[in-house]
Design a protein that fits this description.
It is built from ten helices and 13 strands. The chain is of the alpha/beta class and about 280 residues long.
């Protein structure tokens, strides 16, 4: 059996068995590989780095979408930067109060492949009438648009290479400008055990731009070598102290059944171990 080896960090690799190579081509912006693994199902890798798998995607996508939306409580307009596999978009659109989801993705081939090979992840999200899909540069979009959003989700690649621009103070400031009063920015900041420098920088940037920047953890098995740090930033302090009873009522009213997110986890995931607190400063 063939194998796929990911080397994202010096001295640490991840090898996945490959039952079948489904797709392998150069996209508009990146090298794209889709293969089938006996444990995780279909896997998509960009530039040799695992981006999504059928079997553990729910952890990441639920944490990206449901936590900020349930915390806000009155979300109508959502902006997603990246997220070409459609998973975050699908979870956003599960919320009946969401009236519009604008998604800006720079790599059109990822969307095409998601529709063809990952229907379990994207579902019918791209065809939903509330979806506005823009193929383009997310940095340019938030810099130039006059649109305002309740929630902005940065579903981007890691803070290395071309994706590094999505972790700059200028980009975060542009995102803040695009938020409605009381709005919230959802990000992932990197891996706690390996990306200490970028994590610390991201935390510093967000704390300078927003009144409150809270960080939390989740472990996604194929995002090596976990756990992943997520950020939640807003000038609305009430977002960070929503009672669990209120979160439970919002979850019940939505009719959404999650596999990872729970109302108890909503706040508990922000209880961080000391080494992560040290990194974040």
């Amino acid at each position: 059996m063939q194998s796929f080896t990911e080397t994202m960090f010096d001295g640490h690799t991840q090898t996945l068995a490959v039952e079948e190579i489904i797709y392998q081509q150069r996209g508009v912006e990146q090298d794209i590989l889709v293969f089938r693994n006996p444990r995780y199902g279909r896997v998509m890798a960009l530039e040799g780095i695992v981006q999504v798998t059928e079997e553990d995607e729910f952890i990441y996508h639920e944490m990206m979408a449901h936590l900020p939306i349930f915390g806000h409580g009155a979300v109508k307009d959502v902006l997603i930067i990246g997220g070409g596999d459609g998973g975050t978009l699908r979870h956003v659109l599960m919320h009946p109060n969401v009236q519009r989801a604008v998604m800006v993705e720079i790599e059109p081939d990822v969307i095409t492949l998601a529709k063809q090979y990952f229907p379990r992840i994207c579902g019918d999200a791209f065809a939903d009438k509330r979806t506005q899909l823009i193929i383009g540069d997310g940095c340019a979009y938030v810099r130039d648009t006059a649109e305002k959003f309740d929630v902005i989700i940065i579903d981007a690649t890691d803070p290395v290479g071309p994706g590094k621009v999505l972790y700059t103070p200028e980009f975060y400031a542009d995102c803040k400008r695009c938020l409605k009063p009381g709005g919230v920015l959802r990000t992932h900041a990197g891996m706690a055990t390996e990306q200490n420098g970028p994590l610390h920088e991201t935390a510093e940037h967000l704390r300078k731009i927003f009144t409150t920047a809270q960080f939390s953890l989740a472990t996604i098995p194929t995002y090596m070598p976990g756990p992943m740090v997520f950020g939640l930033s807003s000038n609305n302090q009430a977002l960070f102290t929503v009672p669990e009873t209120m979160l439970a009522e919002r979850l019940r009213a939505s009719g959404i059944r999650c596999r990872y997110y729970t109302t108890a986890l909503h706040h508990a995931c922000a209880a961080l171990p000391q080494y992560v607190l040290d990194i974040l400063g």
